[in-house]
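Batch job 17 of 40 flagged for manual review because the log was empty.
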Amino acid sequence: MDNNTTILVPLKDRGDFTIRFLGWYNLISCPFRFLIADGGSCPTVKSILRDKSNFPNISYDYVEYPYDETLTEYHAKMSDIVDKIETPLTLLMDNDDFFYVSAVFMHTNYLFHSKDYSSSRGALNKIFLLPPEWEEGDTIEAPVVYGDIVLTDNMYDKYRDPIIGETAKDRLIQQSQQFHGNWHNLTRTRHMRAACKLVGLANPPNFRFTEQYLGFINALWGKCMRANGYFILHQDGTPRSTETNHFPPQEEWINQEYWIDSFSKMTSVIASVVSYYDNIDIREAEELFRQSYLTKLPDHKDLLLSKYEECKKIDNSSLIERCYEVLDQCKVKEIEALHPFEYGDTCQQELDLLRRVLREYA
């Protein structure tokens, strides 16, 4: 059993994908620990996961939470579950995706030798699943759980350069200019823990904000490796865990009623991390974030600048103090030692076997 990495899996129903996910890693005797945070309502899934004899070849802890009715419950769940991680590294996974075991070892090795890096990842390749009887021109009515894998390009191909600024300020600027999410990076646990708790403090009402929090914050703790080799397979077209559209067009999003308060809080939370790491004034850090964000959405500069004036009127001093407390409690500047390990590159073999298994189970 590997003692470096925990696979953190937040759930909200999509039970067929949960069983497929755990069934695959049980089949190949995955050496990583799994920590499952269930905010769903499916009694069948709960019954199956409570009985660990159903997946005897993997080690997992199953924690049940109140139903994720809104993002408030989700953020509270994530803020709590990260305290239960006992390994120095964490990989956050969705139940409809797959990671390559040997790729996780490879990125663990990179972090083992690169203490100035907070996280590391490879490609996030989008996949589609086609039912065995599918023919050219057919429409697919329902999400496909088992079938033939169609492998496509790296979703993170636009910006391949690692985030390598020497200061949190430099990394914030680079992340704004070359924004890709850091949701699925193999991340040092103290950093993942702090990030989830900071998001919980702000509790944004929209998931685009949630993803941007992790995208920015997880680039501030340290450098981020972005490689292009095998790492994660991301299945496209699976059911959303919420019926709300959290990703409307950018202009529509910025004009939402919740946006000014939410962006003001995000500014203060992210600025608190920059201030904490670089020992600069919080107001300087807040202005740095606002100006950097303009480079992320240059086509909406005028709209953003007008919204910024309203954001600046909000007093987030209490939130900032609580952020500093989280950063102290999580000991984000201390790097936990990783345990020695051995690994080989078996990514292609893993993919070949996964293809065969998903086809046979269809």
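Reviewer: the log was empty due to a logging misconfiguration, but the result itself is present. The longest helix spans residues 259-278. Unflagging and moving on to job 18.
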